[in-house]
Design brief:
alpha/beta, 43% helix, Aspartate Aminotransferase, domain 2, 407 residues, globular
């Protein structure tokens, strides 16, 4: 076998995509299928929901823009537009920010792992997490460690986070924390203001023990129930003090502008020290060259226009509001039916996904699959598990059937 031993036996396909293909094939044969696997927002007829203004911007990109190489780190106009979109309300963070274009949010996560941890070291994230975090770590010869996400009362377990952060700093002398918020994938959980303040307090305190980098994966932040950028104000203290942590953001246009296949994203790094900021910018650009070389220039051009043109930005906000209302109706229906049926799941206010806890998730998912209801089983170390439900792809009229199958 010429393939290196550590890469032998790897699965050829993502299990979520495999389940989606099977559910789609059964539906095309005429079966009544509820497919709650797809991580994309579908309308109530099962078609991909697309912002018309975003589609127009993509089609109006000149041919030469599609054909020309983009700069390695991304076009300057795109990078400025992303920082303004994300951090425009927080000048203290914005003036410390550098960024690079990435192929979607996944590229941003890859660059964080490759630049802020040495090979063999581990990221720290919640005990419920998006499965490809592990894949990205495996591919980069890094590891993944977790802290228990929820207390018994359902809130974020900040004490468990602090304990694991301290242990990791003692063992590997640095830490890279991934927090997916708001609207976490897979649980749908959004942290409260008090939880954000507590997390930031612990990160700031632990930064005296070694370099701490906090990455906020904000792929779904525009689909929550509250102000999507409200959490940013709680990060201000991290730009102060003697040992200032680095704050990263994995920004994605996939969900915000409903163009998943365009693969437009960015890693934004807020670094207080100017010398370290320049070194970070260089390292991230070098990583771009050493992985994908450069991103889709036509995509960068379209998204830049959508972010920077006031008329198009307003149109996207209005169109996105219609999609947010569709999703909110599904969330409300799920909460109503799930509460009536006694399902166990985290607080769910908005977002593409929710997680329903179950002691035998694989068996339960298989039983549901036989009935034509598709969800994704999740099994944690130690055997506890859950079912990830992609409510973003389920019509409101089918939510009751979905909950009945879950119950």
């Amino acid at each position: 076998m010429h393939l290196i031993p550590s890469h032998q036996g790897r699965p050829a396909d993502d299990p979520i995509f495999a389940l989606n293909r099977e559910a789609t094939a059964r539906r095309q044969k005429g079966e009544l299928i509820v497919n709650a696997t797809v991580g994309a927002l579908l309308d109530d007829e099962g078609k991909l929901a697309i912002l018309p203004t975003a589609a127009r911007a993509v089609h109006e990109v000149p041919a030469v823009e599609w054909a020309t190489y983009a700069p390695i780190a991304g076009t300057p106009e795109f990078l400025r537009a992303v920082v303004a979109d994300l951090l425009g309300s927080e000048p203290e963070l914005a003036r410390t920010a550098v960024s690079v274009a990435t192929p979607g949010g996944s590229g941003a996560l890859r660059h964080a792992i490759g630049n802020f941890l040495e090979p063999g070291e581990a990221i720290l994230t919640t005990s419920w997490f998006w499965g490809p975090y592990q894949t990205l770590c495996d591919e980069a010869d890094r590891r993944l460690e977790t802290f228990e996400m929820f207390r018994a009362d359902g809130g974020l377990d900040v004490a468990a986070f602090d304990q694991e952060l301290g242990r990791q700093l003692r063992s590997q002398k640095r830490a890279l924390v991934f927090l997916n918020d708001p609207c976490q994938n897979p649980t749908g959980y959004s942290m409260t203001d008090d939880e954000w303040r507590a997390v930031v307090d612990r990160v700031a305190a632990r930064a005296a023990e070694g370099p701490v980098t906090l990455l906020v994966d904000c792929a779904y932040f525009l689909y929550g129930a509250r102000d999507p950028r409200a959490f940013l104000r709680h990060l201000r203290p991290l730009m102060q003090g003697e040992a200032a942590p680095t704050v990263l953001f994995a920004w994605s246009a996939s969900k915000s502008f409903t163009h998943y296949g365009l693969r437009v994203g960015a890693l934004v790094a807020c670094v207080r020290d100017e010398g370290e900021r320049r070194a970070t910018e260089s390292a991230l650009s070098y990583s771009c060259r050493g992985t994908w070389s450069n991103c889709n220039r036509g995509g960068l051009s379209a998204i830049t226009r959508l972010l920077s043109d006031p008329e198009m930005a307003r149109a996207c906000t209005a169109e996105r509001g219609e999609l947010q209302a569709i999703l909110r109706a599904r969330v409300d229906a799920f909460n109503r039916h799930a509460t009536e049926r006694g399902l166990r799941y985290p607080r769910y206010e908005g977002g593409f996904f929710v997680t329903v806890f179950h002691d035998a998730p694989r068996e339960k998912a298989e039983a549901m699959r036989a009935k034509g209801v598709y969800v994704v089983p999740q099994v944690r170390k130690g055997g506890s598990g859950a079912l990830r439900v992609a409510l973003c792809s389920v019509a409101e009229r089918d939510v009751a059937q979905l909950v009945d199958a879950l119950a």
